[in-house]
Records
---
Amino acid sequence: MKEIPHGEWRFWYAQHKGTLLAAALFVVMFTIYVSNHPAGFTANVVQTASNKAALLAFVAMAQCFVVITAGIDLSVGMILILSNCLASLLVVGTPFQTAVGVIAVLLTGLACGMLNGLIIIFGRLQPIVTTIATSAIFFGLALLLRPTPGGAVNETLADAFTSKLFDVVPASLVVLAATLLIFWIPFSRSILGRAAYAAGSAENAAYMSGMPIKRAKFAAYALAGLMSAIGGLYLTFFSYTGEAAFASGNAYTLYSIAAVVLGGVSLAGGKGGAVGAVFGALAFRTIGDLLFVFDLDPLWQPLFQGIVLMLAISIGSIGLARVRNRLEWFQ
């Protein structure tokens, strides 16, 4: 068997260090959680934790697509809320009607992301300003669809996507893994994916090299909208209803940024990946579970989440401060 050179191992570790740290943090926190849970490590406990974490994981994945281009999307939470409200209206009825409703919700999320991309790329507006404005539009549409909480969802479909496969594996984890395989891995290895990373590390140089920067950014924002819509569908599957909850949308947006940072994705762009963002979301969501098993006041949750986020940012800042040249950060 051919031995892998030490230098290649170092390069692989440098590329995936953030993901490995996020995965290790999640494993440690979840082990503490199940060790102190009254029911212990059971399929039901894992299923419940998975279902609660899946929502943030999908939104974190959405945020990751944009952050690697050195952008940010402050509308992902409101796209999730809009998709939730729309799903509570359309994902009902016969199997055919339900399928059409699911497609309509996903296309709506995709369209929202495409709108963000078009305004930012061709309107040449700052991502943070653009997505603040579009988030208000998306919330307004959600409120128009659902002025009061209500609606329904196809219960058979909802149960299928939130139950356990073979009474062991949570379906939400399977869908999350499938989403990574179908969307993230092909994108990250494609020309558009490489251009997205290049845009985040050195956009001017990438543009001068002839890389499709505009198309890469547009694809990143479009996929962010699609991932948020999947999260909105799952929110409907869990709650069986739709609600234009402003505070919830803002919280998911904020937590998605925290999750990508915790997962080793650089807010400066060009470094990290969706797998790390997902582990970051799982770890971040486990904080609430730990407070539950230790019977601590829920009011402490923002404090602990803030401490974890600050530590994550500090680790990334230390690594960034050590480099003498910006290009070294991406080697």
---
Amino acid sequence: MKRILIVKVTSLGDIVQALPVVADIKRAFPGVQVDWAADESFAELLRWSKGVDRVLCAPLRRFKKARRWSDLKAILASISELRAYRYDYIIDIHGVYKSAIIAFLARSSRRIGYQSQDLGERGAAFAYTGRFGPRPQCNAWHGMRISAGEALGYEVEGPPIYDLQLPEAVTQLFAAQEAPVAAFFHATSKDDKKWPLAHWAAVGLALRERGFQVVLPWGSAGERAEAETIAEQVPGATVLPQMSVTEIAQMIDNCALVVGADTGFVHLAHALQRRTVMIFVSTSPSHCGVEAPYRSTSIGDGRSVPPVSAVLEAIDYVQASEPPLAVPHGSAAA
């Protein structure tokens, strides 16, 4: 086994949680090269992975939104890069048309994807020469590890290893802060995943009483307005300036606690081994949540709004043990 291509195109949280597949493959096949094909929006994240040898990307999302000629040219140029090497296996752990097209265009006689009932878009089946077994009865993240292992003939062992190495920060955002920092990721991609702003403010007040400095990142004008609403009710809370994905990751890495809704940056906090509480309102914590003993936990039933008390109990839980030993990001993650 010399070279394998993983196809997982989007989104932030899904790509973060798929990263342990790389460590699994490299454990099973020492010396193998693992490349990864994704949307350009997430290339930055993949380059933090110490296990990914080559990141292949194209502006698929941007072209779909703007239909610009320059983006189409970039997509066409990316095809030649995609086809630069022949792969022993292509593992599509996304399962939609765009991932299947990437798998089909890459050079390999063995392209493995999900069974039809497990595909996000059933038409994606055209690209595959082989299929994973039936989707296992476990969360989505462990399921990706099992599927890749089935395709390549190895058993999944141990906790997930994310193996991330962030670029060194240009400035130390919290260098002057004496209080531990708690970041609130209140924003989500869909309104039905949001936790009420009044609940965020109540948790912020409780954390301030415990000596925390609360910070609020945002990504759009609407999210900034919501952050300001929360900050107005939490003395000393800071609405952060708009930041890049790398800057947010570096900010997370300097936090003592991350509390957030079901969104990609909270998965990243878990992968970076921060103490993490993920709040589920309309999606399934058992399928998409994060869990690591005394470090990360998910709350909610996916059908109702969790109360403030449940979040505070979860915060107590993830802070109950001594801080984990300093190790490379993800090397002991669970």
